[in-house]
UniProtKB/TrEMBL annotation:
Entries under SUPFAM superfamilies matching the protein: P-loop containing nucleoside triphosphate hydrolases
Lineage: Bacteria, Bacillati, Actinomycetota, Actinomycetes, Frankiales
Record key words, sorted: Antibiotic resistance, ATP-binding, Cell membrane, Membrane, Nucleotide-binding, Translocase, Transport
Recorded topology in the membrane: Peripheral membrane protein
The organism's place on the tree of life at top rank: Bacteria
GO annotations of cellular component type: plasma membrane
Compartments where found: Cell membrane
Protein name, entry field: ABC transporter ATP-binding protein
GO molecular function, one term: ATP hydrolysis activity
Residues of the ABC transporter domain: 7-233
Coiled coil: none
Length: 309
């Protein structure tokens, strides 16, 4: 049986003058799944999402959202798709509760606004507060509530936990998981690796306007090196000398603060070779541990960039 797709993007191109923000990008989003789009700033993910939402037109390629063209069929898609707007889509003087009730009134069978406000922690005083006076985190929570109050089949969430405290962040994760359990498809952009690893059924990594990797978090972290040996030591170790003492195909890198990662077939002989090299060069490695690659490691390897905090 063929997989049902909520979003299908094929060979998407979008240019701004001579610069191609999106350059032949392709990916699909299965219905009822959570897909996380990751990429450095300027990678093209925001433009891609805005095209899927119908806010921008593609220069070339095909985009289908729930089987329809997001621009030509915008009116038909509007009640079926939730979009997490940023502050530009809000009325600064309107109270939080009023805004959510206004959005709910445009849908046939919305969630109860008061219950949803309580669910996201915006009941009581917050519900009566004008949008411009809400904190950054409260604005995020209101935007999330507005995206889902209409019971959408598909929802686009842009950095849904940015600016939230730990409690609100975890509550938002629980809400996304509830959406998936209810059969709602979620496409989210995030800079939080733990968020992507916990929530996403699939991760799409975008760089320079194209997809550089896609798969489940487990698939992406299994790829490449067999394992990692991590340790801390003084900055500036001669990694070429270290690699000369290790089996062919090994790799080594230094992150900020003298944090070293050595990748290869990590077995007792590999560990002994690394520690012997350190001993021979008067280096005392600390916090030495064997790990599997993290999603952040995969991201850095593929894009050469650290995700912004």
């Amino acid at each position: 049986m063929a997989e049902i797709l909520a979003v299908e993007v094929v060979d998407l191109v979008k240019a701004y003058g001579p610069n191609r923000a999106v350059n032949g990008l392709s990916f699909t989003v299965p219905a009822g799944s959570v897909t996380a789009l990751l990429g450095p700033n300027g990678a093209g993910k925001t433009t891609t999402v805005e095209i899927c939402e119908g806010f921008r037109r593609a220069d070339a390629g095909t985009v289908l959202v729930l089987g329809r063209d997001p621009v030509a069929d915008a009116a038909a898609l509007r009640p079926r798709v939730g979009v997490m707007l940023q502050s530009g889509g809000m009325y600064p003087g309107a109270r939080a509760g009023e805004m959510l009730r206004l959005v709910a009134a445009h849908h046939a069978h919305p969630l109860d606004p008061d219950t949803l406000l309580e669910r996201v922690g915006l009941d009581g005083t917050a519900a009566r507060t004008p949008f411009r006076r809400l904190s950054g985190g409260q604005k995020q929570l209101l935007s999330l509530a507005m995206a889902i109050v209409g019971r959408p089949e598909l929802v686009f969430l842009d950095e849904p936990t940015a600016g939230l405290d730990v409690r609100a962040r975890h509550a938002t994760w629980d809400l996304v998981e509830e959406l998936r359990a209810a059969g709602v498809t979620v496409v989210l952009t995030t800079h939080a690796m733990d968020e992507a690893e916990r929530l996403a059924d699939q991760v799409v990594i975008v760089d320079r306007g194209a997809v550089v990797a896609a798969g489940t978090p487990a698939e992406l972290t299994r790829g490449g090196a067999d394992g990692e040996l991590r340790f801390r030591a003084p900055s500036g170790l001669d990694l070429d000398q270290l690699l000369a003492a290790l089996p062919d195909g090994s790799r080594a890198s230094e992150r900020a603060g003298g944090h070293y990662i050595v990748r290869g077939t990590v077995d007792p002989a590999f560990l002994a070779a690394v520690t012997a090299w350190c001993a021979g060069n008067g280096v005392l490695p600390t916090d030495l541990r064997v790990e599997q690659r993290s999603l952040e490691d995969v991201f850095v390897d593929l894009t050469g960039s650290e995700l912004a905090p």
